[in-house]
Amino acid sequence: MSEQPSEGPHAAGIVGVAVPHNPRARRLRSKVWNDFSKERLPDGSHVAVCHHCHKQLTASSRSGTTHLKNHLAICLSTGTRPARGRRRKLVVRRLLLRQVDQNAGPATADSTPIGYDPNAFDQETSRQDLARMIVRHGYRFSIVDDSGFRTFVTNLQPGFRIPTRESVQSDCMRIHDAARSRLRVALANLPSRVSLSADMWRSAVAGTDYLSLTCHYITDEWKLKKKILNFIQVDSASTSADITSNILEKCQEWGIEKKIVSVVLDNCLYSDEVGRELLQLLHNKFDLFHVRSCAHILNLIIQESLELVRDLTDRVRASIRYVKSSQVRFIRFQEAVKQSGLEIDPRPTFLAHDTNSNNVNNNWASLYVMLESVCRYQKAFARLFEWDPEYRAYASADDWPAVSALTECLDVLYHTMEKLPTVENPTANLYFNEICAIHLLLKEWCTNRYTVVATMATQMLEKFEQYWEVNKTVMAFASILDPRYKTKSVEYFFRVVYKDPYESKSRIDGIQASFIRLYNEYAAESAGQSKNEPVFYKGTGRAGTVAGSGLDYSSGAHNKTFSRITLSDAKRGLDQYLEETSSGQTVKSDLDLYLEEAVLRNKEGRVDEASFDVLAWWRAFSAKYPVLSLMARDILGVPVSIVPLDGDARTLNDYLSTMDPVTVEGLICAQDWLRDEDEGPKAEDGTSAASGASDLNGTHGANNVDVPILTKD
Prior knowledge:
Shape: extended
Largest sheet: 6 strands, mixed
Mean pLDDT: 77
Number of helices: 23
Low-confidence stretches: 1-18, 76-114, 531-563, 678-713
Strand content: 5-15%
Radius of gyration: 38 Å
Distance between the termini: 57 Å
């Protein structure tokens, strides 16, 4: 397009009549000048005149060309000049920046980026990306109405037509439907069995109950994964039969009802009743385990048992409140600290603890932290009791040894529980030794010299053993499948926990017999699915003999001339010889081979507690133990320890609480499914075109509940 003289200034602050740019001046190298003409005003300044709308913009040597490119992005493509003095609303926006010639030199500061293609923008793809962003990060549908968001998107890509909140909601639900279809296919193709956990959630606004069903499994790459399958609304008046029916119906919809190895129902309504009913309805040729989460059960046991020592802990809380109540009393306490030879802290940490025993948030872990911090000053409190007449109604000098003993017990439990949520891959083999050690300690604490400790431990042991009877089998199986321990952990701990030799031997034999029975079930299924003939079998007759260096061929070989004896005739004697000499040998299963080998040790001859990856080990040795690896893949994936969540953590936020149940389930499940999905080519619906296997292999971390979209704002 040829350069045209400007009819007058159209840019604010620019006055005078423009004249054409001197062609002898420095050459204009930026491609943006294909759409602008540089002209000089009478005052000596320069302007850039747009070829399309004839608007004048500053073109000084220091102004650069960025503002010219921005102008082209919003300039009317028709070239019609807007009325002078009136701002015209731009309805149709088009990016007019031209693509840089691929043969041009390196991009300069004022040039368009090499390879930039203004025609690459796709409205539908961008719209689906917006929906995926909203799903993944839990944003509100109404974000598309926010002025800041609309301004940002418009400046980023003027051509993008921002959808309405209703359209965004529909796009999000389509993403859920597509991801659900892929996940269902992937679960159907998964050769291993899966575990199922159920968790109750509550709406923050309406008080509605929801049932969350989560599937736990180990992939073909031996990675521990979990997926939220459903998040369904349930009536608060539901019976155990209703809950069971809901769970069974969803399992059938996903096609996993025949491949469930365990169910975890600790945070479910009527957990015991539902567990028994599911064991009957889902029972197949394999054993089905009803598992109780060790983290959840231990929390309940400890919290309930501490009620027995509440009088003592309340006196400790009262002592802290006494010190905090006035500056005078705090000064007295500091004097007692000094007299006791302790280091004076101007602000002791125990003063920051909540001393209200009726506070629902004051759980046993916070009680332990408080006791641990205050026990450092037990000598000061004992001295305060001696000479401060106002302190006589609080914890006495005789109380503090018991408080110290109680704190030592809670310290063991606290640090054991503290490790459970931090495990990256919480496979079932990690907990047997820890739980057995707690079992042993509880028995020892029952005979503690301090009554408060013995009383608490006795109740804890009684409740613990009820849980232990339910979980010991699957946890022992997982320990046996850990090559660092095999049967050794079971043998050792059962002998030290159960002092009676007959009882310990009976329990060890029972675990081993159950393990072998389950292994045989896997072996039978594996042989039934195999299309190959058994490698070893016993023949019925002798077809030839081997004597010295001569061969006696049978099956008609003696009727053939020497020249017509084939290669297979010559090798048949070897087959017969192998059959005859191997018929008396005992064929060992891979379980026999696994147990015969020594337990795994590191270079120093010790158990590798920190870096050992049991799933990586089984992946490496699955070919050596083909049947046992199938069993390990199912058992090690059982969620033995799901990190417990308190009531607040299992509450929908206000935004989700206002939605209908179908949308709530769609957003929560889709967010979980897409969180770790690999980015790749998009399908027609805008979702990732990754295969079902890729969907299952997305990293999802641990067994603990991790649903950011659910939590409170």
